[in-house]
Structures are given as structure tokens and as C-alpha cells.
Amino acid sequence: MASCHSGTWYIGCAGLVLSRQEGQFGVVEKLLSQKNLSPRWYERFPRAVPVGIFGLTMAVTVLSVFAIERAETQREIAQLTQTAQAVGSGVERRANANAAYLRSGAALFATQQMVEAPLFRTFIHQLQLDGNYVGSDGIGWAMRVSRDDVPVVESVMRRGGNPDFRIQPAPAADQPFVVPIMYLEPDSARNRRAVGYDMYSERVRRAAMDAAMRENRPVASGRVILRQEGNRDGPPGFLIYMPVYGMDRGEARSLRGFVYSPFNGQQFLQSAINTDRIGPVGIRIYDEVEKPGNLLAELKLEERSGRTVRRTVDLAGRRWLIEVEAPASNLLSVMSVMTLLFGLLVATLLLVLARLLTQQAVEDRIALAWFEQQSSIRNSLTRELNHRVKNTLANVLSIIALTRRRATSLDDFATSLEGRIRALSATHDLLTQSEWGTTPVRLVLEAELAPYAQGAEAHVTMSGPDVELAPNDALSLGLAIHELATNAAKYGALSTPEGRVQVGWELVGEDRARIDWRERGGPELDPAARRKRGFGTDLIEKIVAHELRNPVELLFEREGVRCSLVIPVRRRGDFAIREAKRT
């Protein structure tokens, strides 16, 4: 009774200690359960968040580059507009200066009955141009000559020092008058090519002269090829005409001719602008509308950009279109490239930082989940260990009580008790190795029958499928096998060299397994021994059967002991926590 009371006291102490540990783990589990362990949105997408931040940063960078480029384009357009205004002003200034010379010449020649070479040269000398004809090829005089007076005029001009003078082309039969070029200063080989040419015979020149006669002011012609060029494929140009009227004897106002200036378009453009001030731009001047056949002059660029500004000017009654084009530049400006590189650098740094932070958050979340799982496992294991220890100590107490009643001496009591405690210890070792998870039947049998199943003369054979047992069931099976082996070693098949023990097991359902113990070749059992019940019989039929929750069939046959145990096979999910912990 003292032993029982002492054992009860140990059980109570162990339960108290385990209950305290269980309470401590419960506090930890409660604290963890109070935290919100559900993953946050950035933890659900650990890769998408950094990529999204990178994309957003690059989008802001691209928008900044777009704004910079737009500002650069607007600034460039503003500069082109200023350049176009400067070019237009220069062109108008040159044309107005030349028109002023033509007006003064028209006023002088209107007072004369005949404009002769000395008078014309004197007029040019008094202008004091010193070779600078304001971007033109000079200033000329074209006299209106009646068709009938053409021979007389040609004769006078030849006698006056121009032996090769001839009006060309010859006037048509229905043409009442011609307007040939009489003089053109400066007197150069180039300008002499135009002397004698009837400008009224050509459509574009004739339209300009008719407009000048109607408006009585300087009028510019359309795009023409000057006679000075010597061929029809020469560079384009234009002319400005100022009509000269005189008074006939009957005081009737009549046209005497035109004082005019021919212009090479390219030279006129270059004289009208200051290339040092406008910078490297492309400039094109069109007569009225923009098309290749109306191009008067052009300053070309090595590579066109397509970014242009247009402005129209009125040049002596003629509408001109001035187009200024920016030079080709890099795809992006220097500021845009720097902004793009800086944005890329920042986006990359943010990508790396966000990736590290999200990864750290995910790892922290995993760690918290692991701690929560460990707390739950420890809590479960503590409760289970409390239950196991109580059951084990209860079994020990039952074994002590049964052993004491069957023992005949103190040595017999100690020896029997030690063997049974060792059997429990061997099975406990298996459960400890499996961390109190499921334990295979074969390992339990091998642990208890190791001395008899090894070597060349093995007395025990085992066969059966893989069956996993719960911890309590493994302990009960180990105790039963120990009792059977001890009995066989003392009185049965394992007590003689010829004896053999065959242990087999099989599944008899989804949740049960049957283990058969069969002894052969040992001493024959007499009827009296078969009827006698020992401690092993009580242990197997009472304790083991109670723990396994199934009856035990134990038969003492003449050939040897035969025992059949039915053991419950638990579902694997009952030990999922420990299995997950081991993996």
C-alpha cells in the first residue's frame, strides 16, 4: 500500500509540473493568437510589389522626360519662331531698300524723254552703292518699245556702243510692244547675257509688270530663271519691277518702261540674314505655296529633323512662305538622358529595397507562423506527455502490484519488475526516436526480440506489411511481446535450441491489425501448466487488452503458446503535427 501511495504521489507531482508547463505554453499561444497573423497585401505579392514600384517610378521618370522634351520642343519652336521673324524681317528690309532705289530711279526717269546710257550710269553712280546692290544682281532699265520701232531701237543701241544688241525673242504678230532690257548695271559679262531680252514675252515677268502698271508701285515677280544664268536649269530667282510713266505732248500719261532689279534667290537670302546670329538652322523660301516647283532659296541642313516653323511675308506685293527648320538632334536631350538615368537608378534601388523588405516581411511572417505552430505543438505535446506519463505510471503501478502478488521472494520480485520496466523503456526509446509519432510494428518487435532474432541461429522469424502504431498502442504491444518472449524463454520455444517463434501480422481492416504469436519446437505443455494462470497471462489479458481496447486470444496448446492480439491502427492525421515537425 505504501508503494501505491508513493506511486500516486509521483503521478500527482508529474501531473502538476506538466500542468504548469502547459499553462506557460498556453500563455505564449494566447499572445500569438492575439496578433494578426494573416498576410498583408504586400506579403501576398512579394515579387509583384517591387516590380510595381519599379514600374511606377519608371512611369514617373518617363512622364518627367516627356515633360522635359515637351518643354525643349516648345523652347525650340519659340527659337525657330524668332528665327523665322528675323529672316522675314531681313528679307523685307532688303526688298524695301531695293524698292526705294527703284522708286527714286522711276522719279528721275519720268522727267526724261529718253533714258540714255550716260544718264542711267550717272544715276547708278549717285546711288553710291559701291558694288553692293542689296542682294540683287544689279539695277536695270527696260524700255517700252512699240513693235514698229524695234528696228530703230536696235540700230540706235548698236551705234551707241553695243554692236551686238538685238531684241529677242522677236515680237509676235499680235504683240503691240516689247519691253527689252536696255541697260543693266553693274556692266558684267554675266549681266550682258540679259541685255536685249524682251521680258514682256515671258508669262511670269509679264504678270508682274502688268501688276506694277496697275498699282504703280514696285511689284515682285514669281519664281523665274534669270537670263543671266545662261541656261534654263540654273538657280531660281525673281525680279522687282517699278513702272516709269511720262507725259506725252498731249499731256496723256504713258508708260515709258520699267526700272527693275533681278535677284538670284540664294544670294538674296544669304544677304538678308545673319547666319552667325540665327544659328545652325535650315531655311527655305517658297513663292506663295510650299511645293518643290516654287522653291526660291534654301539653306540646307546636313540632316533634316522635320521640326519646322512657317511664316508668310509680303515682298513687293508678292506673298512668300518662309520655312525655318531645326537641325537634327539626338533622340533625347541631355537633360532628358540625365533624368532617365537618374530615374532608372532610383527605380532600381527602390526595386531592390522593396524586394528586401517584402522578402523580410514574408520571412518574418513565416517565422511567426512557425513560432505559433511550435507553440501549438509544444502545448499539444505537453498535454499528450501529461497523459502518457499518467498512463505509463499507472501501468508501472499495475505491474508493481501484480508482480508483488506473484513474487515468491524479493529477488524474484526485483528481477521480474526490472525486465518489465526494461520492456517499457525499450519501447519508450522507439517512441522518443520517432518523437512520439507513429512507430512501425516491426521496430517494436525487433526491439523486444533482438536477443532471439539475431545471429546464425535465429529463433524468431517476423513477417508482415508496414503498419504504423500510435504511441500508447506501441507501448502496450511492446509490453505484451516482452511477456510472451520472457515466458517463451523460461518455459516455451525459446528455452530449447530447437524451438522457434513465428510472429506475423496483417491488416484486418482500415483501422485494425492482428498480430499472431506462435511457438513451435519447445517443450510440450502439460494440462496442469496450461490451466495455471501466471502474471504474464494476467498482464496480457488485463492491462494489454484494456489498453488496446480489444480482447486478447491467449492459448496454451501442447505444441506451444499461441497468442493473437488485435491492435487499432490510428489515422495518420492524428499525428500530423509531429509528422510535420519531423519533416
UniProtKB/TrEMBL annotation:
<dbReference type="GO" id="GO:0004673">
    <property type="term" value="F:protein histidine kinase activity"/>
</dbReference>
<keyword id="KW-0808">Transferase</keyword>
<keyword id="KW-0067">ATP-binding</keyword>
<dbReference type="Pfam" id="PF03924">
    <property type="entry name" value="CHASE"/>
</dbReference>
<keyword id="KW-0597">Phosphoprotein</keyword>
<dbReference type="InterPro" id="IPR042240">
    <property type="entry name" value="CHASE_sf"/>
</dbReference>
<protein>
    <recommendedName>
        <fullName>histidine kinase</fullName>
        <ecNumber>2.7.13.3</ecNumber>
    </recommendedName>
</protein>
<keyword id="KW-0418">Kinase</keyword>
<keyword id="KW-0547">Nucleotide-binding</keyword>
<keyword id="KW-0472">Membrane</keyword>
<dbReference type="GO" id="GO:0005524">
    <property type="term" value="F:ATP binding"/>
</dbReference>
<feature type="transmembrane region" description="Helical">
    <location>
        <begin position="48"/>
        <end position="68"/>
    </location>
</feature>
<feature type="transmembrane region" description="Helical">
    <location>
        <begin position="331"/>
        <end position="357"/>
    </location>
</feature>
<dbReference type="InterPro" id="IPR006189">
    <property type="entry name" value="CHASE_dom"/>
</dbReference>
<feature type="domain" description="CHASE">
    <location>
        <begin position="111"/>
        <end position="273"/>
    </location>
</feature>
<dbReference type="InterPro" id="IPR011102">
    <property type="entry name" value="Sig_transdc_His_kinase_HWE"/>
</dbReference>
<dbReference type="InterPro" id="IPR036890">
    <property type="entry name" value="HATPase_C_sf"/>
</dbReference>
<dbReference type="GO" id="GO:0016020">
    <property type="term" value="C:membrane"/>
</dbReference>
<dbReference type="Pfam" id="PF07536">
    <property type="entry name" value="HWE_HK"/>
</dbReference>
<dbReference type="GO" id="GO:0007165">
    <property type="term" value="P:signal transduction"/>
</dbReference>
<keyword id="KW-0812">Transmembrane</keyword>
<keyword id="KW-1133">Transmembrane helix</keyword>
